[in-house]
Specification:
By secondary structure, the chain is mainly α. 60% of the residues lie in helices and 0% in strands.
Length: 153
């Protein structure tokens, strides 16, 4: 091989540059075309309200909050509030009980569908009922479920 040949001296830098640029092209082909993308996660109330994934058979979307969480929930929320409606609520800004039912519902679904989720179904139901005692308790349990729902995938 003649390393002093003019075609080799031109071919080597061109090949080197192409090899260095190849990973950049490959990475850009796998990313979306947006500069900013919002990832809500696969465990949030918004995800479950979007119906992108089937809900577990133990708790269908049309189940009512009062049937799933018990009589205490019946006293606090509408008797016909469904789990799907609970996950899609948008009145949870200052209302700690609305936030509690929204995050608890997502947590319950996650407890059935996500391996490694930190709470069992029984723990979610118990914490939900404990949260209905006061504003402070509701805020504490809603925040715990909020954190767990966003940490999960």
């Amino acid at each position: 091989m003649n390393y002093n040949h003019p075609s080799f001296s031109l071919m080597f830098p061109v090949t080197l540059i192409l090899l260095l640029l190849l990973p950049i092209q490959t990475l850009s082909a796998t990313r979306p075309g947006f500069v900013y993308t919002r990832n809500r996660g696969r465990c949030t109330p918004q995800y479950w309200s979007s119906r992108r994934e089937a809900w577990p058979r133990m708790i269908p979307q049309g189940s009512t909050v009062s049937k799933v969480f018990g009589s205490r929930a019946y006293e606090r929320y509408r008797y016909d509030l469904t789990l799907l409606e609970a996950t899609s609520r948008n009145d949870d800004g200052e209302n700690v009980f609305a936030r509690l039912v929204k995050e608890s519902t997502a947590a319950l679904i996650n407890s059935y569908t996500r391996t490694g989720y930190p709470y069992s179904a029984w723990e979610v139901k118990t914490a939900m009922i404990q949260g209905l005692v006061s504003d402070e308790a509701a805020a504490i349990h809603a925040q715990r479920f909020y954190d767990a729902n966003r940490a999960c995938n």
